[in-house]
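Sanity check

After download, print the first record. It should look like this:
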Amino acid sequence: GSASHGKLKADQWRSVCTVSLIITLVRIWGSATALLRNFTDLVIAVEIATKRSTSSHHIDIYRAHLTRYLRSLLELFPDHKLQTNHHLSMHLDECLADFGPVHGWWSFPFERYNGVMRDINTNNKPGTLTGNTSLFCLS
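Expected structure tokens:
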């Protein structure tokens, strides 16, 4: 793609990774590689976590695949340091149990506002905004 088309949003990345990339990686790597199993565990965890309904069974499946993904990630890439998002993802099962499906409370809707704020002219002066920012909250 070109820069004029913008960047993929999180939900678009999810679609690419859970559909297109799985098909492509199976064709490139074959079906019996540790890398593919690692990636598939991540995809299954994401698919379970982003379902529009949840249950204790779904949460158990999420936890199992995410744990296996993180463990195999460290085995495949021993020098890799886990990131904050890896840690936070280990708490998502608790949030699913407490708050229900993520569609009711996830942050994807706020990405739109991040994009709007990114496009606000600040004259490259951090901490200063133009007078149009009050319109942002009203839109």
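If your output differs, re-run the checksum step. Summary of this record's structure: The longest helix spans residues 56-76.
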